Amino acid sequence: MKINTKHFGEVNIEDNKIIKFAEGIPGFPNSKNYVMLSKRDQNELFCWLQSVDEADTAFALTVPYVFYPDYKPDVADSELATIGVHGQDDMKDISVFNIMVIPNNAKEATVNLKAPVVINEKTNMGGQFIANNADYTVRHKLADLVQMYA
Fold first, then answer.
1. Is 44 left (phi over 0), alpha (psi -120 to 50) or beta?
2. What are the residues facing 50 on neighbouring strands?
3. Mean pLDDT in the chain?
């Protein structure tokens, strides 16, 4: 299937790579289907969560554990159940990402630790959930995390 994208132009994707977000991403209720995209010259640290439904909707994602090795978002079991996670055995099938905001001054980039994007690789279902951890913020400066663990 061919889709138009915000950062990559027209790309060809396989149907089995589409990740369903039943509730969408908060603030983007019309986009329910997404695909993960990355540039070939980038490592797995950064990628784009691109809407299949709306070409202009894409989110920069990062893997939190590189910057924040102790990251353990406390997400309610009932929320994880919506993407097919029904117990500890299913936890091996999930990937956790965080949405980044990268302004013109990259030193001001932030990462949303409060609301991780959780994807069940087995069911191709995902969701953005609010972590119950009080110390996680929606605009945690990425530079602070890099300095903390450099």
1. alpha
2. 35, 58
3. 90
What's the sign of the alpha-carbon dihedral 15, 20, 25, 30?
Answer: positive
DSSP for the chain, written as a single string: -EEEETTTEEEE--GGG-EE-TT-BTTBTT--EEEEE--TTS-TTEEEEEESS-TT-EEEEE-HHHH-TT------HHHHHTTT--SGGGGGGEEEEEEEE--SSGGG-EE--SS-EEEETTTTEEEE-----TT--SSEEHHHHHHHH-
The more confidently predicted of residues 142 and 145 is: 142
Summarised one tens digit per residue, pLDDT across range 23-44 is 999 999 999 999 999 865 556 6
